[in-house]
From TrEMBL:
This is Citrate synthase. One of its GO terms (biological process) is tricarboxylic acid cycle. Keywords: Acyltransferase, Transferase, Tricarboxylic acid cycle. InterPro entries: 2-MeCitrate/Citrate_synth_II, Citrate_synth-like_lrg_a-sub, Citrate_synth-like_sm_a-sub, Citrate_synthase, Citrate_synthase_AS, Citrate_synthase_bac-typ, Citrate_synthase_sf. It comes from Longibacter salinarum.
């Protein structure tokens, strides 16, 4: 019999390692011009949104295609607030997780477990999927904050029935109401991370969604993809590098050159699509500069700038969003291993928006592999091998 996976001429496959340059689907969510360094969510530039929009407005924009009017925004805010509490059983999972567990593994597991307690988990109707997106987005900050407290031997702080997602998250984490500046900085970070085309975790969520599996499965899978250091996990690695430079009193440029000489990657640099500065990195760089002045911690900005200049000067490789977000979060007092879960918190808006888009006109996503293994072998019974 002919090779089952052999293709007819009309379906001749295109080979693209890493799917580089492949356009897999149409999307109305975000546009990236990698040459110019531009990013747009549903028609609005990232600079415009970072300056003027709150994260909740961006969530509404991604889910609905337009910015909300005041009553639409209030409705979204109150449904997010109404869904902040976790089922006791999910809190118990967090209580039973070892304090050494990776917070992304805990988040992945808790998100998956949330589906057990959602009556609509398996309902594949648009309205139900929109409600699930709201419930998921509302619960994720509570999961992250509760686990962080539990692993430090503290009781979780119950979510507030007021305030923005940024405000409530910082409150639940620290058991202290955040100041306006911290809330605003964090909110801008959420806006910057909310969506980014068909990145690896969003692609993962759409692949899972395209089998008509449920939203919890798709978001759990996306969290798994984001965890990796080549994707969202890079922000934690960036902070490890900055802390290592600080501890050793190393010269940042020499430190980076040594890494490059050893053929190691410098985390927070390079991108599949951008050939120039990631526009989110430019916004975050300015935020790091302001924060480091304000907190009297100038060294993080100085180290970062020296690393950036070395990477651009020596390799022409630019920073991505993960580079300057690391020191921003650090100066907000957040633990480095929470940086990627916070990325997941924000990106849940994008993942779920992409799922709604996928299901509005679904087609199974299924690329091909070129078989490069042997053929023509004959089975040999185990006793003869
Ligand atoms: C939110 C995000 O996901 S943003 C990305 C976060 N990830 C990181 O910061 C991890 C570090 N960066 C990388 O590993 C890569 O740049 C990626 C994974 C982001 C993009 O990968 P690709 O598009 O496959 O680019 P690729 O890895 O082919 O890089 C092209 C060349 O630049 C080099 N390069 C790319 N990024 C880096 C880096 N951070 N440090 C050193 N060299 C790099 C590669 O070694 C390669 O060199 P070569 O052609 O001599 O082999
Ligand atoms: O687009 C990508 O490949 C990675 C990225 O920057 C993101 O997901 O924000």
């Amino acid at each position: 019999m002919a090779d089952q996976d052999a293709v007819k001429e009309k379906d001749a496959p295109i080979k693209a390692p890493g799917l580089k340059g492949v356009v897999a689907l149409d999307s109305e969510l975000s546009f990236i011009d990698g040459e110019k360094g531009e990013l747009i969510y549903r028609g609005y530039t990232i600079e415009d949104l970072a300056e003027h929009a709150t994260y909740e407005e961006v969530v509404y924009l991604l889910w609905n295609g337009e910015l909300p009017n005041e009553s639409e925004l209030n409705e979204l805010r109150s449904s997010l607030r109404a869904n902040r509490e976790l089922p006791d059983e999910v809190l118990d999972i967090l209580r039973n997780a070892p304090s050494s567990a990776h917070p992304m593994a805990v988040l992945r597991t808790a998100v998956s477990a949330l589906s057990f307690f959602d009556d609509e988990a398996e309902v594949m109707e648009e309205d139900a999927n929109r409600r699930k997106a709201t419930r998921l987005l509302a619960a994720i900050p509570t999961i992250i904050a509760a686990f962080d407290r539990l692993r430090k031997g503290k009781e979780p702080v119950a979510p507030l029935d007021e305030g923005s997602m940024a405000y409530n998250f910082l409150y639940m984490l620290n058991d202290e109401k955040p100041g306006e500046a911290a809330e605003h900085t964090f909110d801008v970070c959420l806006v910057l991370h909310a969506d980014h085309g068909l990145n690896a975790s969003t692609f993962t969520s759409r692949v899972i969604g395209s089998t008509l599996s449920d939203m919890y499965s798709a978001v759990s899978g996306a969290i798994g993809a984001l965890k990796g250091p080549l994707h969202g996990g890079a922000n934690r690695e960036v902070m490890r590098m900055l802390l290592d430079i600080d501890k050793k009193g190393a010269d940042p440029a020499e430190y980076v050159r040594e890494r490059l000489a050893n053929k190691e990657k410098v985390m927070g640099f390079g991108h599949r699509v951008y050939r120039t500065m990631d526009p989110r990195a430019a916004i975050l760089r300015d935020m790091v500069e302001d924060l480091s002045e304000e907190k009297n911690q100038r060294k993080w900005y100085d180290y970062s700038l020296e690393i950036m200049n070395t990477m651009i000067g020596d390799k022409n490789i630019n920073p991505n969003v993960d580079f300057f977000s690391a020191s921003t979060y650090y100066m907000l007092g957040l633990d480095p291993d929470l940086f990627t879960p916070i990325f997941a918190l924000s990106r849940t808006a994008g993942w779920t928006a992409h799922l709604l888009e996928q299901w509005s006109d679904n087609r199974l996503i299924r690329p091909r592999a070129e078989y490069v293994g042997p053929k023509g072998k004959t089975f040999v019974p185990v006793e003869n091998r």
